[in-house]
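Section 5.1 Outputs to date
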Amino acid sequence: MEKAFDFDFVFDTQFVFRKLLDAIAKPMTIESIDKLKNSFPENAFLTALGCTFLDNGAEMYVEKNTTLADTLAGLTLSKQTDIENADYIFLTSELNYETIKTIFEKAKKGTLPDPHKSATIIISCHSFEGNEDITVVSPGIKGAYNGKTSKYIKTILEIKQQLACEYPCGIDLFFISDKGDIFAYPRLARLTKEEK
């Protein structure tokens, strides 16, 4: 019997789920799901994340990739919807900043009684590497995270900061690189200036 894909919905989703938990518990820490690079014929990492996040009770929005949207709907039975109602939003390529800002503004931010009813946005980007300095404070980071990243990622984090959501509302971000690296930027994370 020839398999259509090499992804195990028990063991591989558990593997990805643990990586996502580690990433959200320790923001800006890079985790890797590189071992799943051949698990699907196309969009292997995004599909693996989708199969882990989604089920038949979740609603998703996939930006500019109908193949991935149809694949995820078929594999997880999740419903496709618009940005405003999506639980999970997949940005499958590097987009211009105006588009990202519009998506962030439209995405669910949760409510004061239910801040967890917010969107999770999965952002695909080529690489995390760059020369842009960032300082991030967040639950899960002792003190502050000081590091470097790409201009693309730094600008996205600045756009998220401009949303100025009322505490504890907001959106969770997960970044996935072309080589399967993941890091999380939770809804309560924020950029700050490094104190000298």
